[in-house]
């Protein structure tokens, strides 16, 4: 009995691992022939045919009926992916990150999501000793004002950014002048390079805020996490704050299926 | 050969475990064992194989849930299920013009599988979502696929017994034959109450320039919204079908 168990164990482990290698190869390339798969996986073609037969039987791959036809992922996998996507609670993941930031620093932390041309705060944990007033829950700011909004804007598509900046420059009321536009453009570029947006008193004097973007599994920016604190006295801790926010935003993105 | 039989059985259990986890959320291996009908030790081995392969994660309390790896697999499967389709803009325009829910579904044996759903402005039709499917006797997309798709009506009837989902569903072979004939005569299918009571839809076939049936395209909404504009909607759908198939297939 125990020897059969051991064989079953090995079969199960390797069958699932091999299946995963086939799925991964197909997910990366879209469609492959059995011969191409054999090359990619470095397995004999006879082994590949057997694996494909088994995977087709459970609906995880589909094959063109003609000989030498291409192999692709099975359509049943779409429903599994949908179920996983629906089970992800991005707000819950973000709230856990805000709580960890608050526990570690006692400062205010909040989650912003884009709402048209503004960023809205939808979760927020107040600091233990101070409460910055810049973004209450339900409040919003234009995407170019403040660290949280700018962390989103910087990672939106180039087309969106161009449209947004164009609208700022040609606004009826207070169009943004050339120098300010250049400064903002440079700042967005810096945010993309460093992974964080910093606002040092530009929304509320005396408030230092640092924010990092949260990404979906489709590599789209879906929000940002901000730590906001009073400027006085804390300056030497800002480097730590930057790292913490970067780390926590990345943790949330990973939980949502984002890969770097 | 014995090893291969073992492999196919293991993979069958594996698929069942994944589907039960997808449907019911995190479970302990013991619960998985009960749900898919395998001995507990097998379920423990299955769980660790899934975790090892990166398809599942195990929490501190021992419960197993599907990993985010499935998001990428699902997206990729969706992309290759309709690799000819690139015109999401046409579906958006169709939705914005008609204010109805738009579905695009591709044929598979005995069913049609949704690859796009764009919610309408008035009512959200929930019976189908990406990855979900309808049998070929149900709804505009199912019935138009039965009329024009790769699987003949007689083959469908030989393989499956059509079931009703509402009291208006078509299930009898002679009724289905008449429905297929009507769809072919009109070039579209009107679905009224047969998938969801209170909901109507109009579906048309999408043909590649080569003549190959690629998909079913439909708009669905409250009955009044659809029935009042039947002819106009059918024309609008035919135009969209031609555009989305122009550079595909």
Question: Would you mind describing this structure in some detail?
Answer:
The complex is a heterodimer of chains A (260) and B (249). Chain A is α+β, with helices and mostly antiparallel strands and 260 residues long. In chain A, 50% of the residues lie in helices and 20% in strands. In chain A, strands 6-5-4-9-8-7 form a 6-stranded antiparallel sheet, sandwiched between helices. Chain A is elongated, with a radius of gyration of 25 Å. Chain A starts with a helix and ends in a 5-residue tail after the last helix. Chain A has helices at 2-29, 34-41, 45-57, 76-87, 90-105, 147-153, 158-169, 178-194, 238-255; strands at 32-33, 61-63, 70-73, 108-115, 118-125, 140-142, 197-200, 207-215, 221-230. Chain B has 249 residues and is of the alpha+beta class. Chain B has 2 domains: 3-67, Winged helix-like DNA-binding domain superfamily/Winged helix DNA-binding domain (Arc Repressor Mutant, subunit A, Orthogonal Bundle); 82-248, 2-Layer Sandwich (Beta-Lactamase), CATH 3.30.450.40. Chain B is 48% helix and 19% strand. In chain B, α1 crosses α3, α2 (29-36) crosses α3 and α6 crosses α8 (173-186). The longest helix of chain B has 23 residues, at 2-24. In chain B, 48% of the residues are buried.
